[in-house]
Automatic annotation (TrEMBL):
This is HMG box domain-containing protein. It comes from Fraxinus pennsylvanica. InterPro entries: HMG_box_dom, HMG_box_dom_sf. SUPFAM superfamilies: HMG-box. GO terms for molecular function: DNA binding. The lineage of its organism: Eukaryota, Viridiplantae, Streptophyta, Embryophyta, Tracheophyta.
């Protein structure tokens, strides 16, 4: 096999030094070497990422006066079911058994039987929405008052 020494070999990435030397000696051409990227160990990558400072998202300040969300129809059913179950089985203290029994009974109930709990949940949700709207209006009113006070304070400071 005869090699043409006038034709340069380009863009060859070599992983093994001995292979590089053999090819270079046999070809005798100009070889352009591209250094291959060394892959980091996954553990090292995690350490590097964890040491970098991450910008944390600011949490919204919770308003303690906002109304609590109403329970769903299933949770209303579970309140009644727990009372019945504890009366029937006073010696059973396992939460797991009560939850399992409640879930099975809820699944086996017909839609007519569930309707009572669904109606109660809808009523509670309607009350919640009204309370939420009134709370939101109060908060907006309070914000307007506080911004007006701040504006008055700035005017007073500027006048002095």
């Amino acid at each position: 096999m005869v090699y043409n020494k006038d034709v340069p070999v380009a863009l060859i990435s070599f992983h093994d030094c001995s292979l590089f030397a053999k090819i270079k000696m046999s070809i005798g051409a100009h070889v352009v070497e591209i250094p291959c990227e060394v892959k980091k160990n996954p553990a090292e990558e995690k350490k590097a990422k964890s040491t970098e400072a991450k910008a944390k998202k600011e949490k919204k300040a919770k308003d303690l006066n906002t109304p609590k969300r109403p329970p769903t129809s299933f949770f209303l059913f579970m309140d009644d079911f727990r009372k019945e179950y504890n009366e029937a089985n006073p010696d059973c203290k396992s939460v797991k058994e009560v939850a399992k029994g409640g879930g099975e009974k809820w699944k086996s109930m017909k839609t007519e039987e569930k309707k009572f709990y669904q109606d109660r949940a809808a009523e509670l949700k309607a009350e919640y929405v009204k309370a939420l709207k009134s709370d939101k209006e109060e908060n907006e009113h309070d914000k307007k008052d506080s911004t007006e006070k701040e504006a008055k304070e700035e005017v007073i400071v500027d006048d002095e």
